[in-house]
Design goal:
Blueprint (H helix, E strand, L loop, with lengths): L3 E11 L6 H9 L6 E7 L6 H11 L3 E5 L5 H12 L2 E6 L5 E2 L3 H11 L5 E9 L6 E5 L4 E2 L1 H5 L10 E3 H4 L10 H11 L4 E12 L9 H15 L4 H19 L3
Parallel strand pairs: 1-2, 1-4, 2-3, 6-10
Antiparallel strand pairs: 4-9, 5-10, 6-7, 6-9, 8-10
């Protein structure tokens, strides 16, 4: 399938997102950059997320609903959207997060000015579940490579933009942190991810989200080192200690 060089394909998995997905979609509609398609893969949730997305899609053809046949988790939903993506650029946006209006325009310009990088990411702030509280700014470094990312939590999924001309084909692995594993895979192929240190995204903190279970999250990061990255116990311990310390520094205050 030929790619549209200016088109940004937005990859959004959705599960039990009926109460928040409309606000997420509106944040895309509010973008100053208008050449995008939003591929929302609804993962057989028990609520009416599909109806909500279908209603938005009827109003704007750039919004496209993908109806999963069975629940497969975030990786399967993201892969379904990736298979249908027509743009050169892949942006990732989770169903409960929000973009500020200039996000795509600012990041696409930044990425194009840095030809040769496969992945860029931005700064952001957290918000409470109801959006009434906004946290401190979480900035990003100018550059991070594969080894640096192993011991870091700095790339947040809803800030990521990938150039498919540089990445080549890729899929999300069916693992607990499919996004983290994917960024590592892309960086392992060579090069570095570049950070745009600007406040361009809002990460919604939900009490029942996967990442709120800190004990299980820590276990899954360790398993990613050992089983996916095939690191030895000493290397895994080194990177895990750095990962945990940076996560604590990032989230020690709201």
């Amino acid at each position: 399938m030929p790619r549209n060089d200016g088109l940004v394909s937005i990859i959004t998995p959705a599960y039990r997102a009926a109460s928040v997905i409309g606000e997420t979609i509106q944040s895309v509609l509010d973008q100053s950059y208008a050449d995008w398609e939003m591929l929302i893969a609804e993962d057989c949730g028990p609520d009416h997320t599909r109806d909500v997305v279908r209603d938005w899609a009827a109003r704007d053809p750039r919004i496209k609903l993908i109806e999963m046949e069975r629940n497969g988790g975030p990786a399967a939903a993201r892969n379904a959207a990736l298979e249908r993506a027509q743009g050169r650029w892949l942006a990732f946006l989770d169903s409960d997060d929000l973009w500020l209006p200039g996000k795509l325009e600012r990041q696409l310009d930044f990425h194009r000015r840095n030809q040769g990088t496969v992945l860029t990411f931005t700064g952001y702030r957290r918000i409470s579940a109801d959006g009434s509280r906004t946290g401190h700014y979480i900035g990003v470094p100018r550059r991070i490579g594969y080894k640096g990312l192993l011991g870091n939590t700095i790339i947040t999924t809803s800030t990521v933009l990938v150039d498919r001309d540089r990445s080549g084909p890729f899929r999300m692995k069916k693992t607990y942190y499919d996004d983290f594993a994917c960024w590592l895979e892309l960086l392992k192929r060579g090069g570095a991810a570049l950070g745009l240190d600007e406040d361009l995204m809002r990460y919604r903190v939900l009490e029942k989200s996967v990442s709120r279970d800190k004990g299980n999250s820590a276990k899954q990061v360790w398993l990613a080192y050992r089983n996916i990255e095939q690191l030895g116990p000493l290397a895994s311990a080194w990177y895990f200690s750095n990962y945990a310390a940076r996560a604590w520094l990032k989230y020690r205050q709201f």
